Amino acid sequence: MITVSETDDRDLVKEIMTHEDIWWRIGGEDPDDFYPPADCIYLLARIDDVPAGLLVLLPDFDSHFQLLPEYRDQKYAVGAAILAKAKEYTGRITTEIGKEHANVHHFALKNGYTVLKEDKDNWYYEKVL
Fold first, then answer.
1. Where are the alpha helices (DSSP H) in 1-129?
2. Of 16, 29, 114, 123, which one is least surrounded by beta carbons within 10 A?
3. Which residue pairs from 82-86 have beta carbons closer than 8 angstroms and sit at least 24 positions apart in sequence?
4. What is the pTM of this model?
5. Is the pLDDT score of 27 beyond 80?
6. Which range among 5-9, 103-107, 124-128 shows the weakest confidence by mean pLDDT?
């Protein structure tokens, strides 16, 4: 069963975001130097009460979705659950995805994101919730 709730456990958020299969895609700095900012909203997805992923909502409602690799076979169900919860906070989110992550681009399109623009390196999206 998938559940989604807001969390203020920034140590858990850091654990998910600095996971070896996630950090190299989003990082750039030393993960030991990273600590999740306090001014974001963190929506934690759990599968059978085990942390599976999260959606980070920045103050401007730009967003970042991270899913632990062992749950990626359930990415559409988790994505739908997280987006339903995000609707409680805002009516619109945005994100950008690097063109080296075509699989994430397809995930965004399948979850109803609209491409606003693109450049040589990135796609820029919005999702009306």
1. 10-17, 20-26, 75-86, 102-110
2. 29
3. 82/4, 82/43, 82/45, 82/53, 82/54, 82/55, 83/55, 83/111, 83/112, 83/127, 83/129, 84/4, 85/4, 85/5, 85/6, 85/43, 85/55, 86/43, 86/55, 86/57, 86/129
4. 0.94
5. no
6. 103-107
Confidence of residue 24 (pLDDT cuts 50, 70, 90): confident
Domains annotated on the chain, with CATH: 2-128 (3.40.630.30)
Q: Report DSSP state, residue 59.
A: T
Q: In what order do the strands lie in the sheet with 2-7?
A: 2-7, 41-47, 50-57, 63-67
Long-range contacts of the stretch 28-33 (C-beta < 8 A, 24+): none
3-class DSSP state for residue 56?
A: strand
Q: Which two tokens stand for residue 88?
A: 């409680």
Segment 1-13 shows an average pLDDT of: 98
Q: Is 53 helix (H, G, I), strand (E, B) or coil?
A: strand
Residue 39 identity (one-letter amino acid): D
